[in-house]
Amino acid sequence: MDTLGYQSILQVRDTISEGGIIAGWRKADYLFSEDATCPDTLRIFESKDYLWNRVVVFHCLFLSTCEKRQSVKSVSIGHYVLPPASVQDEVLLQMHSVGICGSDVHYWQHGRIADFVVTKPMVLGHEASGRVVKVGSAVKHLKVGDRVAIEPGVPREMDEFFKNGRYNLSPTIFFCATPPDDGNLCRYYTHSANFCYKLPDNVTFEEGALIEPLSVGIHACRRAGVTLGSTVLICGAGPIGLVCLLVAKAMGASKVVITDLSSERLTMAKELGADFQLTVKRGDVPQQLAKTVEDMLGTQPQITIECTGVESSIQTGIYATHAGGVLVLVGLGNEMATIPLINAAVREVDIRGVFRYCNTWPMAIAMLASGKVNVKPLVTHRFPLEQAVQAFETTRQGLGIKVMLKYHQKMMK
């Protein structure tokens, strides 16, 4: 990266306690100020001089860790250095709303998910929306001022998965807030324009951010084959279980049973259209739960969408699903699980995996714009970026449904 002027270096170093010479910074380098919210720091790191010059420096929320430390448990407000949108097919975005996902909290608490390990500072966040402030020279479908929703997964190469339309399975895909790739929980962010989708006027920024979890529901229901008249069991009434409920109903499911440990979340599920709610307890016998589901529906569900990753819940899903039906695994739990595989085999219950999503943003936007799906009730808490640690703690404790972070106080409403 080219060196900025000497006076600029002195100006920044007077405010920043760590970080070294600007000339040595690379994309995704980090700085730490004595007070990330002090007026002088805000003025420097959000000034147009920096925004339109060689680097953008701004507040972000990131994890700090090292290779020897498996548990992170450290979320800090700091500063993040990123080149402006100089690449032809990218856009520079001023971020507006970012939802906190369970995976963000898991990286915070454990420092890894499966083989994805946090070994260096990483910006969190992948459920996001923002406004375009600069476009690359090759970008034709977006302009400055457009409000967009961000699809966080961007293929890096035209491999076999890209060619057959299942780019979510590409082993080299870029994905926000999945090591080693940074997320977008920061005031400004650059992203591939092809994976930024313009929002209709009647779709809010918050709804735009919620397209990411909604996409999980769309992909899960597609994989399950939900259609008119389907009977569906959804295990888990967290954010993902609830979006699966919304999508299943929008796709024509006639009856949906949803389960959870929390009566509060089941109340929300009822408000969102669940026909039956089943409160489960730790230690419940899977076969008995399956029988209760059958009694509620009057038949076994043709489709089960498992959103918890809990071994006993997967077992319940297999026992509950009608012969010849489909069980899709959305929730991620332990790497190894004991399940009644022979029961599934002899009854031809298809078990299908779900990994993120692909080709879902246009459908999600259409669902929201048409009013067929309403995700607004899912947002139960809002915090400014300066209170990000409190927001993460709220999510960790399982309070409410979806916690949303805003980049300025004026965006809180």
From TrEMBL:
Annotated GO molecular function terms are: L-iditol 2-dehydrogenase (NAD+) activity; zinc ion binding
Localization in the cell? Cell projection, Cilium, Flagellum
Q: Which family does it belong to?
A: Belongs to the zinc-containing alcohol dehydrogenase family.
Could you tell me which species this protein originates from? Collichthys lucidus
Q: What Pfam family is a match, any one?
A: ADH_zinc_N
Q: Name a single GO cellular component.
A: motile cilium
Identify this protein by name: Sorbitol dehydrogenase
| Alphabetically ordered keywords of this record | Cell projection, Cilium, Flagellum, Metal-binding, NAD, Oxidoreductase, Zinc
Q: Which domain of life is it from?
A: Eukaryota
